[in-house]
Amino acid sequence: MGDAVEWDETEREWMLALQTYEAAHVCPVCGMDIDFCHDEATVRQVFQRSDVTTCFVGEMREKSMRAFAESGEVVAPNSQTTKLIATTE
C-alpha cells in the first residue's frame, strides 16, 4: 500500500476553493470561463475564423475505440476509455 497523501488544513481549503471556483466559472466542455464561452455574440466576435487541425493522440484513441467497437466486446459504449501504450523501439 502506498503512502497516503497528507494535506494540511490550508491545502485542503485551497483545493476546496479551487473546486468551488471551477464549478462556478470553468466550462466543462472547452475549459474557458463560462462568462465568455456562453456569450454567443462575444465568442463569434472574438473567433470569427477557426482552423481545423488534427490531434494525433486523439486520432490514435479514435482508431483504438473503433477497433474495440467492431470487436463486439462493447458492453457500455459511452463508458469506454483508452490507454495509449508507447513502444520501446
Instruction: Give a short account of the largest sheet.
Output: none
What general outline do the C-alpha atoms trace? extended
| Helix percentage range | 40-55%
Q: What is the terminal-to-terminal distance?
A: 32 Å
List the helices and strands in order.
HHHH
- Residue ranges: pLDDT <50 for 5 or more in a row? none
Number of alpha- plus pi-helical segments: 4
Q: What is the C-alpha radius of gyration, as a whole number of Å? A: 20 Å
Average predicted confidence as pLDDT: 89
The fraction of residues in strands falls at: under 5%
Q: Give the structural class.
A: mainly alpha
How many domains is the backbone divided into? 1
Number of separate strands? 0
Structure, described:
The protein has 89 residues and is mainly α. It has one domain (9-78). Helices cover 48% and strands 0% of the residues. It is built from four helices and no strands. It has helices spanning 9-25, 34-37, 40-46, 56-70. The longest helix has 17 residues, at 9-25. The protein is extended. It starts with 8 loop residues before the first helix and ends in a 19-residue tail after the last helix.
SSE arrangement:
Layout: H1 9-25, H2 34-37, H3 40-46, H4 56-70
Give a quick rundown of the structure.
This protein has 4 helices and no strands. It is mainly α and 89 residues long.
